[in-house]
Amino acid sequence: MPGNMLSKGEIFVIDTDAASREQLSTALQQNAYEVICFADGASLLSAARARMPACVLLELPPDRSGLDVLKRLRGENCMAPVLVTSANGSIAMAVDAIKSGAADFIEKPFRTHDIVGRIDAAIDEFAQPGASRQRWLTGCEPLTAREGDVLEHLAAGLTNKEIARRMHLSARTVEGYRASILKKAGARNVTDLLRRIFGQDSPTQA
User: Fold this and answer.
1) Residue 30's closest CA among 125, 117, 106?
2) Can you give the pTM of this predicted structure?
3) What tens digit of pLDDT does each residue of 26-76 get?
4) Rg of the Cα atoms in the chain
5) pLDDT bracket for residue 158 (50, 70, 90)
6) Which of 4, 15, 23, 52 has the fewest CB atoms below 10 angstroms from its CB?
7) Residue 60, by phi and psi: left (phi above 0), alpha (psi -120 to 50) or beta?
8) How far apart are CA 206 and CA 204, in angstroms?
9) 3-state secondary structure of 59
């Protein structure tokens, strides 16, 4: 990180590709982040118990063992946004990651400057509870504030009943909001909605 810049916080990174780690570290340091790379989930979890990172970038291997790390981070009340990356991504994997508490799911390969932008956005969004995810549905009819809140919960993997409890609404009301969101987004169902959210503008290697 340049010496004349104030740190924006630590980014915890697990990535098995050495070149990818180096590129990410360089790009993040140039954007005033401190980067700490970990060889495995156990060491990352141990560090997260001692201090709170600004964000976690977690690679999901084919055996999906990274989901266990993600669940434990959430179970231990780590409040930092977790961005999951995968070279073998699928809609099912993205849904599992979101349900397990991921803030974003990013397919490899990716451009480093794109992922820095996503990290910035995730940190900003986590700093503003209840912020609308309208930015993920560019080009559709604007969502109302309440629809934005429902969308946020849907993207986190909550069911209608769970959303209803959190928002102090009836399940039928939540169903109405969800139907409106799907219509505005042009999505057939929630899985299609997640595909729109996490699949649009997918970055590719430069």
Assistant:
1) 117
2) 0.62
3) 999 999 999 999 989 999 999 999 888 999 999 988 777 889 999 999 888
4) 17
5) confident
6) 4
7) beta
8) 6
9) strand
